[in-house]
Each structure stands twice: as C-alpha cells, then as structure tokens.
Fold each of these.
Amino acid sequence: MPTHFSRLSLLALVLSFTWTCSELPTEDSHSSVPFLLKVSERIYTGGQPKTAGDFQELQALGIKTLVNVDGARPDLSLAKSYDMSYVHIPMHYDTVEPIVLLSLQRVLQERPGPFYIHCHHGKHRGPAAAALAWRMDEDVSSEEALSVLRRAGTSKNYPGLWREVEGYQSFPSTVALPPLFEVAEVGGFTRLMAEIDRTWDHVKMLKSHNWQGSSLHPDIQPQQELSIFRQQFEDAEKLAKANPAYSEDLDFMDSLGEVIALSEELESAFQKKNVSRADSILNSIRQSCKECHRSYRNGKIETSMEPKSKKKTDAEWEMTLTPEQYHILREAGTEAPFTGKYTDTEKSGTYCCAGCGSELFQSAHKFHSGCGWPSFYLPFHEGAVTEVEDLSHGSIRVEIQCTTCEGHLGHVFEDGPPPTGLRYCINSGAILLKETP
Ligand SMILES: [Zn+2]
C-alpha cells in the first residue's frame, strides 16, 4: 500500500511539473535567459543570468541595470563586462517590505534603464518586484500588474506577492529613499548573518519535508538552497579574511571553517540522497552556529565606534556604558517620557546603537509622534533591529533589540504614519546620533 501511495504521489508530482511547464510564458520561450519576460519598455524580468549568452541577450535588449531580489550573490564581473551594473535588494516570499519598495523606487529614479529585475528562478519574486516597479514607473492598474504574475506563472502559494502587487500604494514624495547596495554584503557581517538566518529557515523547512521540495513552497528547491547556504558561509569567510578584527581571531576563523566544511558535506549527503546523514549534519551545523553565536554575536561587529571584542560580560558593559545606557540596553529599562535628548531632535544623520555602534535608524524616517520618545517608521535596513515578543507589564508588546548586540532599544507599535504604519518607539539613551556633516 505505501508503495502504491508513493507511486501515486510521484505521478502527481510529474503531472504537476508538466502542468507548470505548460504555463510558461510562450512569447519568450526561445530565450537563453531563464523565463525572460518583457513587462514594459523599461522593465524586464526573469531568472538569474549566468552565461555569456544570457548577458548578450540582455545587452541586445539594451539592459543597463540589473536588480537582484534573490539572496544569492550574482556574477558582478560578468555583468560589468557587458556594461551593466547591479543593485541587490533581497526580498522575502511572503511579503514585500517597505524598504524593498523604496529601494526599487530609488533604482527607477536614479539608475539608467532599461532594467532587468530577477530572482533565482525567475517565476515568483522577480516578476512580483517587476510588476511593482511597473506600477511605480507608469501608474498601471492592479489588474495589468497582476497579469505579469500570471504570465510569469507565479505560484498562488505565495499569496503575499500577489497581494502586494494588487494592493500597491505609492509613497508620498517626502519619504526618504534608502541606500542601494551592489551586493548585500556591503552592509557588513551583520547583514550577511541575517541572510544566512533566512536561508537557515528554508533549510530547516527542507529537512521537515525529508529534503524534498514541497508543492507549498515551489520556489524553495533543495539543491539551490543548500548551495546558497554554503555560498553564504563562504562569503562570510571572505569578508572575515579581509578584516583583521575577525581574521586574527583564530577560534572564530576555525568555527567558520568548520561550518563551511559541514555545509559542503550537507550538500553532498543530499546529492547522495542520504537523508539520515543530512539530518545529522544539520544538527552539527545547528550546534556549531549556536556555540559561535554564544561566543561572538554580542559585540563582534564592524563599527567605527567600538573596538572589536568577544561577547561582553555585564561587568564589561558596565564599564563601557553610562549608567543610563546600561539600564536601558542591558536591563531593558525605559527612560521617562519627554526626558530623552533625541525626542524632538530634527538634526539629520544616522542613529546608531549606543552599545555597539550598529546603524539602526535614519533621521529621514524620524517623526514627531507626541509619545515622548524618539519615533521612527522604518529601520536603517532590514535586519538592523530584531523583534522580540515582550510579555512583561501584563500585556503583549513587541520589543525592539539591536540585532548585533541584542541591546534593548524600545518597542514597535502599529500606529505609525504611512507608508509603514509602524512606530518604532526608541529610548534616546539607547542610541547615538551620528550627524551628517
Ligand atoms: Zn547594538
């Protein structure tokens, strides 16, 4: 009986695959670029260009700017040799965050077109981002924008992508646009670790499906995710080797080397279809990451404000922070309303963590909330701050911590202004303003 059942599921899988193939956009199916689709005169979408043939085809279309919305690292030098530049805006499958939309808007405003907006496969996130960019660029209707997803064969299992494309609202022109990165690692080690975290979630999901792709998540394919996972650790090693603060720390480099070796083994166990081996390697990776985070996550970061160090003890924090900073950051304290030095500040610059110097918020996203604490509607970049459920004081609130040093910053509420509707209510004592000269 089980054999019959699995044969049937296999048949269903094959059928669903055939079905998916028949839905491919027909007009460009002779193309070398995977799933290439023309959205407008200025916007194209599809999968990641890999070969010289792919780039030649994009060049023939006049493409000047490539936008990668996938987590993987694209081939920058190949792109450059075809006179194209890259912008990296990694996005999720379940929603499109305001910072992604604002970054896309900046690309359309400042970079030369036509644009090729791609994810890895070219069916889900890439087309969704391209449809959104089209709405920003030409003010097209929801229906027209959704037709891009239909033509691309975007899965309905990503309702967040469909919803965002359908419900897109333009931002007021006063909203400041975020910085653009060629590769997300420009944002540093912390950002890379946040990406690894995201891939880790995908890898865990694959394990729960016995290392097979799931029809619920058609874009998360084992081979692809495991190779991204390994590449991200290799990128981390490259970044670490270039920075003496990491490279001179032999324990740290050892841990990184160990996890790279494990991620290679994981890939090979998967290729050999050795499920139990893959499970046990994943456990070793989990253990290794846990130990490394315990020793390094706190305080081990790139910052101009603080010397590099291993995780600090309470006593060390006490020595480097003022009593007020210590109370807020390390004991989750709250300053009295209307007493903090930044509540009404309108100076422009970047607000950094007072504990570790990480960039947390921009003055351009600060607003007068009247609540008595400095308020922002957007963090500096995705991953700069971490949300933690806070059950203290008899209510459920969402605490905001600095992702790098886990210092307590304040809370986030859903009564902020457009475009995000969020209010990051932050203690002045937890941040320092690095003024723009
Ligand atoms: Zn911090």
Amino acid sequence: MRFDADARARLRRMLLDRGQVLATLLAEVLGGKDRARAVEALGLHARPGMRPEEILRAALDHVEALRRMVEAGDDGYGRCHVCGADLGLAAMLEVPWADACRAHAGLAR
Ligand SMILES: [Zn+2]
C-alpha cells in the first residue's frame, strides 16, 4: 500500500468517526426524527427520490467498505474507482471517504 502505517491508522480512525456520525444520524432517522437537513449538510451523493435512511445506509456501507480496504492494505484505497488515479494522501486526510478524482466525482459506483 502507498500509505505508511501512521497514515493508515489516522485514516482508519477518521473513517470510524465518520461511520459513527452516519450511524447516529441513521438511528435518529429510524427513530422518527426529521434529520433531512443534517443529512443534506453532509453533502452525500443521492439519487433523486432516495429517502434519508437510504442515503445514510449507502454512505455507511461506503465508509465501512473503505475502512476494510485501509485495514487490509488494499491498494485500491485512495484511488479513483473509475480511472484508478491516485488521489494522494493530503486529499485522503481531508476526505478519507473520497473514491473519485475530480473528473469522475459524482459518478455512482
Ligand atoms: Zn477518475
């Protein structure tokens, strides 16, 4: 993997924290709270018509999948899922759940 153990530990921690935020919101939404605004504020990709809980579940799955990649030392982590471009450590430390380069941002997997 391109990232050293230190960077991977930081990225893993950040992904765990993000997962916690998403899981908390999901629990609140499932509990009947209107958290549409909070979900919107996260800026998650969502297809038209997706319910907040669907958006949160998809985002949580995504974050969990990336965390498993970091833990496994998978070289695909930190690369664009379309073209394979290396996103770079600085960008990943800013948005550890990024998985697309600028050209391919917004494209669904
Ligand atoms: Zn790309």
Amino acid sequence: MEQQKRASLKNEIVSLPSPEDLPAPPKIKPLKKGAAAPRILSAAEEAGIADEFDGMMLERKLSLFASRKTELLVACGFDEDPYTSGAEAVLRESAEDVAEGLWLAAKACGAKERLVAASSRREAHRFAACCTGTAAVAAGNRYPARTLLMQKLRRGGKKAEWIGVQACAALGAAVRGECRNETVVTVAGDGVRRWGNFRVRIGTPVGDVLAAGKPEKRVCLVAVGSSVTGRTVTDLSLPVTAATRCVIALKRPPRVPAHPCVGCGRCARACPAGVLPWLVHRELEGGSPEALRLFHVEDCVGCGACHTVCPSGIDLMAAVRRAAGLKEGRDLHETE
Ligand code: SF4
Ligand code: SF4
C-alpha cells in the first residue's frame, strides 16, 4: 500500500488551471488570529470551506462539535485506502496552515486539546518538527484506521472529534484573506501514466483531472472517491466536489467473483462498529430478515472494511446497508 502511495507522493502537488467558465473565488475579509469563535465560524462559512472526507460544511461541523462539548479536535492527515494520498501531501506541504487552521477550529468548537494524525511515525515527526506547538501521532495500519484511532482516543469517555487537514489548511489560509475554493485530488491506477496529487478548483470536470494523469488509450473504469468506498463514473463532465479525493483509472475493471462464505470471521474482526456482517449476509440470503432487528446494523459507519477483507468477495457493506434499511422500515425490495 505504501509503495502505491509513494508513486503519487513522489512529486509536489501540481496546481491545474481553473476552467474558464468557473467564477473567480470570492474575496473574504482576513480572519484575525485572535478572532472569537463566532467570527471563525462565519469566516469558514464565507470561505465556503467543506471537509474533504465527508463533504460537510466546516462551519456546520464545528457548530455540531461545540454542541457536543468536544474536548479534543483531531486533524486527519492520512488517507486509509491504497491509492489516495492527498491528505499526506497537504500535511507535508501546508503544515503551518494546517496547524493554524486546527488551532482556529479548536477554538471555534471549544476544544482545549488539538492533535494531528499522520499516516506514519515519520510523517508525524516531520510535522512536529515544523509545527512545534501541535502534537502529532501516527495512525495505525489496520483499516479503517481513522475509526479505530478515534475509538482509541475516545476511550475513557473523552469527547474527541475529527476534521480533514485540507479543511484545516483552508481555514488557516483565511487568516491571509485567501479563499481556497479548491481541493487536492489524487490521480492513480494502472490506466494513467502520471500518478500524482493535483490541486483543482471545485467544479472542474473529472475528465480534466483524469487528463492531468495522462490516461492510457484504453481505460475501462474510472472511479471517483476512495478506492474502498468510491463510485464508478461514466460521465467525465461531472464536477469535482470538495469531497472528491481520488480519481482512479484502471485498464480493466477488477473482477471479484463472489463465493460462499467460508466462515473465517475476518469481516467481524475488521468491523469497527461491532456488526457481524457474515451473520447479516446469511440472514438476508436465508430470507428471514425479521431476525435482523437483533443486530446493530444501524451502527455501520460505511467504512467498507468488511467487504475489503472478505476472501469470498461478498459485498458485505451492501448487505449491512440493506439490513439497516429494513430496520428503518423500508421493505426488502426498496433496499435492493
Ligand atoms: S462497512 Fe459497516 S459493517 Fe462493514 S466493517 Fe464498516 S462499519 Fe462494519
Ligand atoms: S470475511 Fe467473508 S468469508 Fe469470512 S466470515 Fe466474513 S463473509 Fe464469511
């Protein structure tokens, strides 16, 4: 996995030209360093900053964290899938903006503690060396690393929440009055000759980002988003959004033949939410969905770890989502 990421982290982030038909980013009033929480929230809203991991507006996210009385705010500076490396690249290249933005974000939501989570010890040391006032830790290697890290940090009842490093860097840049109407997207896969991280204006067509990776003549599959939970796109004129973190091009679509469950238990061990995906799958296959009401399917965080580790190639996340739909009262056909 690290080897694949190294290919896209080899070079610095490349800024792509903004499409001519996109309006210029709005000017914002520089955010003063000593600004109070309401002003920080309004600056985040003015600058239109959204979190790159879930697309949620930063102002909304921080207001929610404030209502939850958050004590520790974590900046997520790593990507937990094999292809994406935009978070690592931003943490390396914009460490000071990330530290500044995290400080402001923590102030806005009332968190007294701040922490940067990096992909490895080396990256954590690299960050700590240039931003001495902010603690940094390495996330674990086990997927889903962010969920597992947050579970660890919340042990003992601590109220910990996370935001993305790109959102932090954008808030840090607001101190200079810069409005970052852009996002860093990783282009990777055997269907492109130039792997890398590209800074693109939000609204840029996915096809322009793919072109920056010098695609091969025959590309069979283009997926947008994480390689674990992303989706295939056929219309390359679709715009990049704040949450577009990766464009993956493959020469051949991956073939994952589904075999019967072999009862290895990997899906249950991988699940950070304590769901038993094999049991949910078995119940759905057996046509006795009533029993599903007993399982904690509604706790699923959609990380995709279960189907990633399943040696039989069963789409367990889809099964758990269907079960959650059933529990909500939607019938079996609606959830298919
Ligand atoms: S997708 Fe849901 S069920 Fe599967 S491992 Fe993640 S949390 Fe568990
Ligand atoms: S990982 Fe796949 S094969 Fe193993 S128990 Fe879960 S569903 Fe069955």
